[in-house]
TrEMBL record:
<dbReference type="InterPro" id="IPR015424">
    <property type="entry name" value="PyrdxlP-dep_Trfase"/>
</dbReference>
<dbReference type="InterPro" id="IPR015421">
    <property type="entry name" value="PyrdxlP-dep_Trfase_major"/>
</dbReference>
<keyword id="KW-0663">Pyridoxal phosphate</keyword>
<dbReference type="InterPro" id="IPR049704">
    <property type="entry name" value="Aminotrans_3_PPA_site"/>
</dbReference>
<dbReference type="Pfam" id="PF00202">
    <property type="entry name" value="Aminotran_3"/>
</dbReference>
<dbReference type="GO" id="GO:0047589">
    <property type="term" value="F:5-aminovalerate transaminase activity"/>
</dbReference>
<dbReference type="GO" id="GO:0030170">
    <property type="term" value="F:pyridoxal phosphate binding"/>
</dbReference>
<comment type="similarity">
    <text>Belongs to the class-III pyridoxal-phosphate-dependent aminotransferase family.</text>
</comment>
<keyword id="KW-0808">Transferase</keyword>
<dbReference type="InterPro" id="IPR015422">
    <property type="entry name" value="PyrdxlP-dep_Trfase_small"/>
</dbReference>
<dbReference type="InterPro" id="IPR050103">
    <property type="entry name" value="Class-III_PLP-dep_AT"/>
</dbReference>
<dbReference type="GO" id="GO:0042802">
    <property type="term" value="F:identical protein binding"/>
</dbReference>
<keyword id="KW-0032">Aminotransferase</keyword>
<dbReference type="InterPro" id="IPR005814">
    <property type="entry name" value="Aminotrans_3"/>
</dbReference>
<protein>
    <submittedName>
        <fullName>5-aminovalerate aminotransferase DavT</fullName>
        <ecNumber>2.6.1.48</ecNumber>
    </submittedName>
</protein>
């Protein structure tokens, strides 16, 4: 269904209209049920209409629906920032600010690193995704469709290969590209920061090489460069732990948060070392809606649910189910298009490749439609749009997860 009042520049993956959802299931306006492996693109780690989140939202809505924190502080903002400071697994004191989204968190992080270093250049990575605002577009490691027709972008921004077992790029190759960058393209003294995802989302659920991450951390420390880690999609339990950067053996200077931070309500944050968050003058950070009290209440309820015990159990159960099914598909040669399993923990992607070894983009398009017809919603990713990223709620019931994997299996097997 088309609607002339909505911009046609918004790409729709699934041409249906949703009406309601419960945990990992949604229903459209025609009453058809779907198992949701999209989760609002990583927003719903606790599922649709999580009872604890809904209760917190309703209670807060009857008390205070909004106040701009920079006009007069409100309790939910203060409470949430205190909880986040405890929840972020780093050794230094954490400070931060709330935003409306992950992209807004990235924008503010860029302001902070410029002020802290007196430098402007940013190094990002191929396949990365950090938002659709004008500054974050240039960080993205992919042109189409994000950078098309918008002209010159804020910068300077440079890109390096993303080293990962999933991408086939080694740590040594990425470090060699880093050496070349500073030999040929830009002087290292002009670089303010590196920005990276510990597990790329839009890029296809590619997990960063820990060896490279540790080498990069040492390089940044030696050269006075800040390291921003984007946990917008990989954070809040997606990999089975609080944040994915802990598996890399590093601590970032700044961390970007969003998506599943508030159980489905719009919220993001930039957090990190206190002296960095205090570097801009009074009024340099803030926003009218940033840290809305209802969204803060939802985030507090989300953190109540995300105990280490829960995250570990949810992550292990989901990882075991996905990996075991994938290995079974491999063993019985389910499809000539079945490629690698990417990612870590419960953050997994399934690559589709042609028998000749090229990305099977058209096969993924067929699979999206077939799965939807059979009651399963899937989300594409990857530079060639050839990797299915699996984002069911961490709280999905085992029988619903298996039902969804059954649909995936039958639909992929039918494509020839």
């Amino acid at each position: 269904m088309t609607q002339s009042s909505i911009s046609e520049s918004i790409a729709i993956v699934h041409p249906i209209t949703l009406n309601r959802g419960v945990n990992a299931e949604v229903w459209d306006t025609e009453g058809k049920r779907y198992i949701d492996f999209v989760g609002g693109i990583g927003v719903l780690n606790l599922g649709h209409c999580n009872p604890r989140v809904v209760e917190a939202v309703c209670n807060q809505a009857s008390r205070l629906t909004h106040y701009a924190f920079n006009a007069a502080p409100h309790a939910p903002y203060k409470q949430l920032m205190a909880r986040l400071a405890e929840f972020i697994p780093v050794t230094y004191p954490v400070s931060g600010m709330l935003t409306n989204s992950g992209a807004e968190a990235a924008e503010n992080a860029l302001k902070i690193v410029r002020a802290a270093t007196g430098r402007t250049a940013v190094i990002a990575f191929d396949g990365g995704f950090h938002g659709r605002t004008l500054a974050t577009l240039n960080l993205n490691g992919k042109v189409a469709p994000y950078k098309q027709k918008v002209g010159a972008l804020p910068g300077p921004v440079y890109h390096l290969p993303y080293p990962s077992e999933d991408s086939g790029v080694t740590s040594q190759e990425a470090l060699k590209a880093l050496d070349r960058l500073f030999s040929v393209e830009i002087d290292v003294s002009e670089v303010a920061c590196f920005i990276l995802e510990p597990v790329q989302g839009e890029g296809g659920f590619l997990a960063l090489d820990p060896q490279f991450a540790q080498a990069l951390r040492r390089f940044c420390d030696d050269k006075g460069i800040l390291l921003i880690v984007d946990e917008i999609q990989s954070g809040f339990g997606r990999t089975g732990q609080r944040f994915a950067f802990t598996r890399l053996g590093i601590e970032p200077d700044l961390i970007l948060l969003g998506k599943s931070i508030a159980g489905g309500l719009p919220l993001g944050a930039v957090v990190g070392k206190k002296h960095l968050l205090d570097i801009l003058p009074k009024g340099g950070l803030g926003g009218t809606y940033s840290g809305n009290p209802i969204a803060c209440a939802a985030a507090l309820a989300t953190l109540d649910e995300m105990t280490d015990t829960n995250l570990s159990a949810w992550g292990e159960n989901q990882e075991k189910a996905i990996v075991s099914r994938y290995l079974a598909w491999q063993q019985k040669k389910l499809s000539p298009y079945l490629g690698k399993l990417t990612g870590v923990g419960a953050m997994r992607g399934i690559e589709l490749m042609t028998p000749e070894g090229s990305p099977a983009t058209s096969v993924l398009a067929q699979l999206l439609g077939s799965a939807r017809q059979n009651g399963l919603l899937l989300m594409p990713s990857g530079r060639s749009r050839h990797i299915i990223r699996l984002l069911p709620p961490l709280t999905i019931e085992p029988e619903i997860l298996n039902e969804g994997l059954d649909i995936f299996e039958s639909c992929l097997a039918e494509i020839r």
